[in-house]
Amino acid sequence: MDQAVSAETARQPRDDFWEGFRKGLPIMVASAPFGLLFGAVAIDNGFTVFEAVLMSATLYAGASQMVGLELFGQKIAPWLIVLSIFAVNFRHVLYSASVGRRIRHFTFWQKVVSFFLLVDPQYAETERRSEAGLPVSFAWYLGLATPVYVMWVSESFIGGMFGNLISNPHALGLDVLLPIYFLGLVMGFRSRPKWLPVVIASGLASVIAYQTIGSPWHVSIGAIAGVLVAAILAKPVNSEEN
Amino acid sequence: MSTIIWIIFVAAIMTFLTRVGGHLVLSRFERIHYRVEAGLNAVPAAVLTTLVAPPAFTNGWQEFATLLFSGLIATRFSMMPMFFAGAAFIILLRHFFPI
């Protein structure tokens, strides 16, 4: 369990940093189009370039930033936008509980920085490294996060500048790109247990709520429907009740 | 300060709380009730579906066709090709069938 502590003395932080950095490069490339898209759509939905960059730098949570844009474009009450962002990011609670055990040996401020940078691929790579028995040092963790974070923030700027140049966003389908992106994320979860009933419940409830009650509420009502279905259909992991 | 700046700051704090919260709160529990865990696991898919279904079913046939097409592509390909295929699809549909 204290593998990380013993290895830290033998390993150079600089080597660890670059090892992590190399792991971060493919993640950086894969997220690039969405960073640019975020910048461009932000401008289309009434953000300034500065606001787009600020959001990427302080939230650093791709899917939820897109959700924020989508809802802001629909003129939804600010507290509901924040709540929806919070709901989309709520999965981080699970990552945090898990990664917290891997980085016990970090100092307080190293932990603060690490949790701030805890995006989905960062979680996945940290778990993978830890499960492979390799030490998770702060230098490695920071190396992994650096290319992804720096590019994510830069792309919001580049995308924002580009978004200012788009004269006909409708022809480019900018309003449909976010639903396509969200659909891709939803499909990415399809190996999870009870995925289809959850998606059907959320989809149905959100469409009905959208048509009857109206715009902001379809998000919360649809999400609650899906979560309830998942909770109702859940089976205990082992025979004993807890 | 503009509304957007306020939204960004509050959302940034909330996002950070989700990222430390699991470590600070969830890890204190010996185990989580399986229904709570299943519910938590379903949150991202449930929330994101609500942002796909209404645009798919309450707009024109072009939007519905694009999301249907993208969903089918997603069963075979990863996010990136699926996203670009979907984007190309809506651009072509809107070009040849303008409203």
UniProtKB/TrEMBL annotation, chain A:
Q: Which GO terms describe its biological process?
A: L-valine transmembrane transport
Please give the Pfam families that the UniProt record associates with this protein: AzlC
The protein's matches in PANTHER family, at most eight in alphabetical order, are given as: INNER MEMBRANE PROTEIN YGAZ
Q: Give the domain of life.
A: Bacteria
What protein name applies here? Branched-chain amino acid ABC transporter permease
According to the UniProt record, one GO cellular component term is: plasma membrane
Alphabetized, the UniProt keywords read:
Cell membrane, Membrane, Transmembrane, Transmembrane helix, Transport
UniProtKB/TrEMBL annotation, chain B:
Segments crossing the lipid bilayer: 6-26, 38-57, 77-97
Pfam families recorded: AzlD (PF05437)
InterPro entries referenced in this protein's UniProt entry, alphabetically? Brnchd-chn_aa_trnsp_AzlD
- Going by the entry's taxonomy, the superkingdom of the source organism is recorded as Bacteria
Keywords from the named record: Membrane, Transmembrane, Transmembrane helix
**Protein name in the entry:** AzlD family protein
